[in-house]
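ligand=Z2T
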Amino acid sequence: EQWPKGDEKVWRAGTRGLDTDVPSITKTFVNHVQTSLARQAYNLDNLGAYQAAALSVRDNLLVNWNETQMNYTRKAPKRAYYLSLEFLMGRTLDNAMLNLGLKDKYVEGVKKLGFSIEDILEQERDAALGNGGLGRLAACYLDSSASQELPVWGYGLRYKYGIFQQLISPEGNQLEAPDPWLDNQNPWELPRLDVSYEVRFYGSADRLNDGSGRSNWHGGQEVLAVAYDVMIPGYNTPTTNNLRLWESKPKRGFDLNSFNAGDYEHAVESSNSAAAITSVLYPNDHTSFGKELRLKQQYFWTAASLQDIIRRFKNLGKPITEFPDYAAIQLNDTHPTLAIPELMRVLIDDEDLDWGTAWQIVTNTFFYTNHTVLPEALEKWPVPLIEHVLPRHMQIIYDINLFFLQAVEKKFPDDRDRLSRMSLIEEGQPKQVRMAHLACIGSRKVNGVAELHSDLVQTTILKDFVEFEGVSKFGNVTNGITPRRWLDQCNPELSALISKTLKLDKNVWLKDLTKLEGLLPFAEDKKFRTEWAAIKQRNKERLAHHVQTTLGLTVRTDAMYDVQIKRLHEYKRQTLNILGVIHRYLTLKAMTTAERAKTNRRVVFFAGKAAPAYYIAKLTIRLIVNVARVINADPDTKDFLQLYFLPDYSVSLAEVLIPASDISQHISTAGTEASGTSNMKFCLNGGLLLGTVDGANIEIAEEVGESNVFFFGHLTPAVEDLRHQHLYHPVPIEEKCPALANVLNEVSKGLFGDGGVYEPLLNTVRHGDYYLLTDDFDSYIAALAMVDEAYLDTEEWIKKSIRTTAKMGKFSSDRAILEYAESYWNIEAIPVAAAK
Ligand code: Z2T
């Protein structure tokens, strides 16, 4: 290969290598303090030290990133693209140092410069560009793709504001504040002002009517998408992948036509509206609202990403029909479904392909993952809105629907019901486009995220499609989590104990998590159990210290830690948990002092955000906060039961909570939680699971054994029937579940203040009870009692904890991403030679 520019020797002499020793790390740190930050030792605070450390780590990531991207370009393999509206990354510095294998050296380096790594790490703000599990899953998958050296890029949006900051008012109400995460500069992104694409909205689409099926889409608003690249380092490999986030900006600073007309106000307004597209993450996790700006986000992001992917493909010089041999595009839920009609538009209107050829390409390129079967979460867009914002896409969707329904009609003649069930268009006022149907028929494969969920997808929401297209198009990829962040990073002592015990370098078992099984025999080793338990205890102390310094509250550490942390939602049944806590409180109150002294001390933690417009979920938070206020102050019980609602749940808070947990709760109504992923994180850290027979809980129990999990509640097949009974044969709650009726009454009577406030929440249980609290409460309380009993046998409990961790190998996101790579995308690892 010929050297592209100037004197190769001069280039090589100037090329930066990796920092691998402490002196070169401290040197780049000091250089950044001096030049990038324009500061000195005299005026460098912890924030400045964080920035210098981050810039130094970033330099190392960039060395690897450049090598990786050049290697991909040279080898030109098939690539996969993960399109997700959410990437819940959390903090980057610690993870980057660990993945580079340089953490120890940085610890030593910053110490020599007068800083502590803990203080530095605390300065970083979370990148919270996601709502919950779906966004965190995307982040884990990026970590695993890079770690497995797979050519995978992520595509998302660079929101100016991530998920809102949650504040809790003195009355216990959730308040939302914006999350200005970019205010302190973000060292982890590279603005690529040279990489930008135009994206059109509105205007009109005129059919050419020349038999080609083409249209001319013109006019309207044009905005620019500008790329920001985020480096994704693999663990113990130089492979460093890319996450490309788009920012919107006006194509021109002002609208020339308006300017000429002298309408300055309007010109400025239109530039504002371009910037608005990527201003904020929508904070709804399980509802679709049909907001125009959200539709614009979805199209803006898919159109920019596709232009970028197509441009990269075209650089290979291959015919467009080979596109699916070089690009697999994974749709993370239906949010990027507009990519399907958009690729059709590009292929037909710009590339001049016929409909059949274009559809062939499209249906070999896309893969769709469904993340929920809850009806209110299934995206539907009003036809008039799409017609207005994306007129050409509405034509294409109608055309896709026409061909599709013709094929259905052919296979199932004279079945009008079936046609209307399967149509991409739902009749009504207004008509709506069913995005899950479009994603399904436009994709090569469709998968759910745990065995039970994938079965439900195939037997409920996409049943007709399984009958029409055949079952082989449908599959399951059980979710996973990255053991780097969710064990090594968040629980370094446990990680070190595991390495010592297995006599394996962590580089080995963190990349082959099934190696954890080697811990099983040590469950019988008393000394090992003592070390195991001591680490759990120190993690409780770390959490208690965190609560003390951030909230000024004193949490006792000589108690069982019981944790439920996730988005607030009726289907996740935080309400069941808090009503159970109240039941426990009432039971303790009724005991004598001697009886109480024999009970298990318990500290219950809740954390999670409610969607800002979700009234019942917010009321649940209010109840939790007020129950905590009362019971933590009750001298009769406060030594035995404490309750905390920790505000502003985040990835970073999870990293402190999860390693400290003895038991965690995953108690969704059976059939409603697609998978859950925090269940995996708790179990990996030796916390036991209290849960329903739902989502990935089932597969966790399969792995660790039913004797190591606490299951309760009705099973999925019973749910439909129970709901039917609630509607048509209601039994008064006093009869059906007296213990629960009593708890509700105490709340109503004002035991936790202003009783009347909670009536709307309590009435969801008393009447209708869609999420089956009255059906599951008694078995829930029984399961809690079993947990107490098991915990009193300390040695046996520690054994359960060890056995649980030991059997979590399946839930590494490396396993999950390799399933996607091999069974869906058909891509291979592309190793890169280590940079010197
Ligand atoms: C989300 O986090 C999940 C599903 C959604 O459906 C939306 C959001 Cl924001 C549209 C979660 C599931 O609830 C959870 O069970 C699953 O583990 C997670 O996605 C990742 O698949």
